Amino acid sequence: EAIKHCAPITPSALIKTKKQLKNLQHNQSTLETPLTRKETEKIQREVAFEKTSKEVSRWQSVVLQNQKAEQLVFPLNQEPSGPKRIEHVVAGWKAQTPLEQEIFSLLRMNKQPLHDPVLTPTEEASLRAMSLEEAKIRRAELQKTRVLQSYYEAKAKRGKKIKSKKYHRVQKKVMRKEYLKQFDEMVKTDPAAALEELKKMELSRMKERMSLKHQNSGKWAKSKAIMAKYDDGARKAMQKQLEVNKDLTQKLVIPADEDEEDEEESAETLPDFVNDVEPILDQVNPWMRGKLSTEPMMEESNRLDPPVWPREVGKPGEGQDEQEEDEEQMEETEEESLLRGFEERRKLRQTEDYNSFSIQTPDGKKAEILEISDYDEEAVEISDDDEEAGLSNFTSLFHGLVNHMEPPADQPKAGPGLRQGESPALLEEGLVRVRTLEDVELLSQDISTSDTALLTTQILGTEETDTQSATQQADKKRKKMIDPNEVLTKEAKVIEMPLAPTAVEDVEDKEEQRVIIKEAFAGDDVVSDFLKDKRKQEEAGRPKVIDLTLPGWGEWGGLGLQPSRSKRKRFRVKVAPPPPRQDQKLPNIIIAEKRDSSIAAHQVCQLPFPFEKPIQFERTIRSPVGRTWNTQNAVQKITAPKVVTQLGAIIEPIAREDLIKDNRQAVTGPSINLESDQGPQKKRRSQQKKQHKRKKN
Amino acid sequence: MVSPKIFGNVLSGRCKRNQQTHFRQIRADIALNIRNPDDYVRETKLDIQRVPRNYDPSLHPFEVPREYTRALNATKLERVFAKPFLASLDGHRDGVNCMAKHPKSLSTMLSGSCDGELKVWNLTKRECVRTLQAHEGFVRGMVVRFCGTSFFTVGDDKTIKQWKMETPGYGEEEEPLNTILGKSVFTSIDHHQKEGVFVTCGQQVDIWDEQRSSPIRSFSWGVDSFSCVRFNPVETELLASCASDRSIVLYDMREATPLKKVIMNMRSNTLCWNPMEAYNFTCSNEDYNLYTYDMRYLDKPFTVHMDHVSAVLDVDYSPTGKEFVSASFDKTIRIFPKDSGHSREVYHTKRMQHVISIKWSSDNKYILSASDEMNIRLWKANAAEKLGLLAPREKAAVNYSQKLKEKFQHHPQIRRISHHRHLPKSIYSQTKELRVMKEARRRKERNVRKHSKPGSMPVVTEKEKHVVTVVK
C-alpha cells in the first residue's frame, strides 16, 4: 500500500527493485565483527586524550606570559585597594538631614543612581561594552597605526621626490629580491598563483627582449667596441653583455629569470669597475695593503659566483657616465664583503700553518706558544716603521687567533662536574655548620686557598717544561736587535697539543692555501714581530718610577721653574721589581701575566650559563643597581622583586576566567609593564596625602 | 654666607604680607644665588626631606667593587639569618600520616595520624583546637571542602567520613555528617575545586557525588591499587593518579575511560599539579627523584629533580607555582625551583624522622611537614626572610640586597657562601656514595659504548632513562 501511495508502479521501477533483491540474495558476505572491547577502549582513550590535551594547550600563552613577566603579583585577582565609596561600605544609609534629602531629591529627579549602583544604567552599559583597560589598549593601538601610517606616507612622499637614479635602482633591486623571495614561498604554498606569477615574469622578460637592450648597440657598447681592440677588460665586458643577450633571447624554463636580470644589471656595471686603477703602494708585501694581489683573487673569483675583476688590469675608459660611477660604488661593497670572507678564511688556515696555540691552564693562566721555525729563512730586515705596522697587524691577527682558540679550551674545563642532561648541583652540602659571620668568612677563604694552591702547582709545572739555556738570554739583553736564528734554535722544545679542528676543509684546498699563505706573508717578518711584541710586554710589566714632587713646596714655584734636583730625588719612589717573568727563559713563548691571583679568587672563571659572550656578562655586572648611582625611581624599577605576595593573602590557583582575560589581552596587546602597574598605586598614595593635608587644614 | 636652610627659615618665619619686600631686601643685602625653595623645602612635615643628589658617575667611583662588597655582605648576612625552623606542633600519639590545608583560613590546618586520630590546629597560636577519633587504623587521607565548612577523611576502616569544620558545642557528640562504607580500603582522597564532587582511590579510582552513597564513576585500567589521586586545580575536570604498577594515570572526569598512562622505572608515591600551569605536574618517586611532566607529552619528563638520598614520599607546590617542596624518607625536606634539576634549599633537624607529608601554606610563606615521630613542623619557605610587616625602607633594602645577590651570584665567593648547607653525616656520606655509584655506572656505560659497534649503544639522556613506556 505504501508503495502505491508513493508512486504508481512503472515497469522500470519494478525491474529495478527486482534487481536489488537479486543482488541482496547473491551477496552473502557477513557484516564485520565489532571491535573488541579492549580496542574500542583504546580508541576512546586516544580520542579523549587528544581532546583534553588540546583543551589544556589553551593555557600555553598564559603560562609563557607568566614565565616572561618581569613581575608577578599574587594573589592574581586582587580587588583594588584604597578608599571605597561610602555606598559600598555602609549598607543601610538614609538621607536624614534636610540638606541631604534635598540633594537626593535632586538626584532622583535627574535619574542619577543613589545607592548601590554607583553608575547610571547608560554608563554601566558603556562600561560593559568596553573596559577602561581595553579602551586604553585600543586607543593606543589606533594611535600607533595612525602614526605608522603617517610615517609611511611621509616616507613614500620623500622617496618619490628623490631624483637620484641610483636610489631608485637600488630600491628596485630590493623590491625585486623581495618579490623573488615571495615567489619562492608561493611555489611551496600556492602553486596555482605561482604559475600566474610565472606567466607575468615571462611577459616582462619578453618586454625586456623587445626593448633591444643588451644588443651591444648602445652608446656605452659602441665606446667599448672601440676600446676592445686594445683592452682585454673591455672585450670581456662586451662578451658578457652578449651572453646576457643570448640568455634573454632564449625562452625561459625555470622561474630563476629575475635572478638573471639581476646579474645582467651587475654585468652592465662591471666594465667601469675595470676602468679605474688603484695606485700600487707596496709591491713587495701585498698583504700589508689590506687588499689581495691577483692570483689568489682569481682563484677565489673562480669559485664564487659574481666575478670580480682584478684592479690592475683595467685602464680608464672613455664612456664613464655618472650613473655608472654610482653602480661602481655598489660593486665595491660587494667586493669588500668578498675580501672579508677571504680574510676570515685565511685566519682559519693560519691556525694550521703556524701551529700556534694557546694553552689554557686550569687556573686560567694563558701561555701563548708560537712555533716559528718554518719561517726562519724568510726573515728579512725591514725598516723600523714598516716593522711597527706589521707588528700591530700581526698582534691583532694573533689575538684573533687566540680568541678563536679559547672556547674549545674552555669547554673541557666545564666538563667534569657536569653530566649530559644534568644541571650542576645548586647547593654545596657539607658537614660544616655555619653559625656565625666568622664561619661564613672562613667559607669564602676556603676557596681562595685552594685556588692559590692550584696556582703554585701550575707555576712549578711550567718551570719543568722549560729547557732553554740561560746564556742565550744574556745575549738577548745586550743586543737590541737579535738575529732570530741565534735565539730560536731548532732544539727548542715544542709543546704539542691536539689541536681542535677549527675548520673542515678539503685536501685539495690545502695546496692552494699554502700558496696563498706563503704569498700573503711573503714580506712579513714574523719572528722579529714576535720578539718585539715580547719585549713590549716585558717593558709594560716593569715597574715605573713614580715622581711625587710637587712644585712650590719649600721653594719658589712658577712658570718655567723646575723643582730642584734634590727635591725630585727625595720624592721619587722606586717600586720593588716584580718576580721574574715566567717566560723569561722561553724565547718563543709569551706568557701573559695579567692575571692577579689575589683578585682571581673573586673573579668568575667561566662564562655562566645563559650568557653566550663575555661581553654580555660583563655588561650585566658593569651597570650599578644601587641608590648611589641611580635615581630613586630607577632603583625601584630595577630592584623590583620577581614575585610579590601579599602578607596573609590566600593565593588561589589560576582560574579559567584568567585564561579568557589573558587571551584577550594577548590578542590586543602585550601585558602591562611595571610602570603602569605602579602608576595607579602612586596616584592613590598622592591622593591620600592630599586628603591628609586637607584634614590638617 | 647664609645657608639655604636659614634662608628658608627666614622666609617661612616672616609674616606673609611683607614677604615680598623682605625677600627683595635680603637679595639686595647679600649677593646670593637664590634657589627656588620648592626644590628643597617639603610641603608638609609628613613628606620626606628632599635630598638633592648629584648622580655624576665620576663623583661615585668604583661602583662594581662597592656593589660586590655589598653583595658579599648581603650573602653572608643571609646565611647568618637563615633560621627556617619556626615551631613544632606536638600532640599526636602516633606518626602523622596526612595533612590538609584549609582553603579559606591560613591559620587552620588539619592532620591525621596513624592511630586514626585527627587534629585541627591553629597555626598562629601553635596549638591544637580540636581532636577527634576519625577512623580505626590509619587516617589515609583527608581534604577540606572548597568552601571550608566541612572536610572528608578516608581511613583503613574502608570508610569515607564527612565532618563539620566547626567544633561541636557543649554536650554535642563528635559525629561525622556522613559516612560511606566502601568495599575496599581507600588510600587517598581529593575534592573538586568548585563542585560537590570528590575522588577517592584504592583498588580503583572512584568519583563521588557528595549527595550519593555510591560512586558516580569508577576508573580502573588493569591496576590493583592506587596510592594517590589529585584533581587538577586549574582544569578542574582533570585527574591524575599514581598506581602501584609504577604508573601515573591521567583521567578526565567527563570521559568514560582514562586518558593515558606512563609507566616508570619505579613507583611514584604522590603527585601534585602546578596551580599556575594547567598541564604540568610533579611526582615524587621511589627512586629518590622527582619528575615534572607536561601532561601532553608523557614520553619523558621535562625536568628530573634529584638530590634526595632516599625515596621521596610527598610533594607540594607553592601557590605561586614557581617552586615545590618535597618530603623524603631520608629525613629531609628540600625545596626545588620548578625548572631546576637540583634543590635550592634543604631543611633537616636532629629529631625529625622520615617525613611523610608536606604542605606549602597558601600564602607562600610557610611550609608544614609531618613526620614519623608524631610531630608537625612549621618552617619558613625562605629561610632568611624576616617575618611580619616590613617598613618601606626595610623592603627596599631587602629588594636591593636580593638584586645584588642575583647580580653577583656567579662570583665564586658569593656562590660558595650562598650555596653552603650543613647536612647530617649520614646523608652527606650517602650523597657521596650515590655520586660514586653514578660515576661508576656512567664510566661503565661509556666503556661499553667505546668497545661496541658504533651506533649500537645509543646515548640515553637522564630524562629518557626513567620512563619505561607510555600506554595509550
Describe this structure in words.
The complex is a heterodimer of chains A (about 700) and B (about 475). With about 700 residues, chain A is mainly alpha-helical. Chain A is built from 27 helices and 8 strands. Helix content of chain A is about 60%, strand content about 5%. In chain A, the strands form 3 sheets. In chain A, strands 2-3-7 form a 3-stranded antiparallel β-sheet. Chain A has a two-stranded parallel sheet with strand order 1-8. In chain A, a hairpin with a 5-residue loop joins strand 2 (about 355-360) and strand 3. Chain A is extended, with a radius of gyration of 41 Å. Chain B is built from 7 helices and 30 strands. Chain B has helices spanning about 5-15, 20-30, 65-80, 390-405, 410-420, 425-450, 460-465; strands at about 85-90, 95-100, 110-115, 115-120, 125-135, 140-145, 150-155, 160-165, 180, 190, 195-200, 205-210, 215-220, 225-230, 240-245, 245-250, 260-265, 270-275, 280-285, 290-295, 305, 310-315, 325-330, 335, 345, 355-360, 365-370, 375-380, 420, 465-470. Chain B is globular and about 95 Å long. The N and C termini of chain B lie far apart (about 90 Å). Classes of the chains: A mainly alpha (about 700), B alpha+beta (about 475). Strand 4 (about 430) of chain A pairs parallel with strand 29 of chain B.
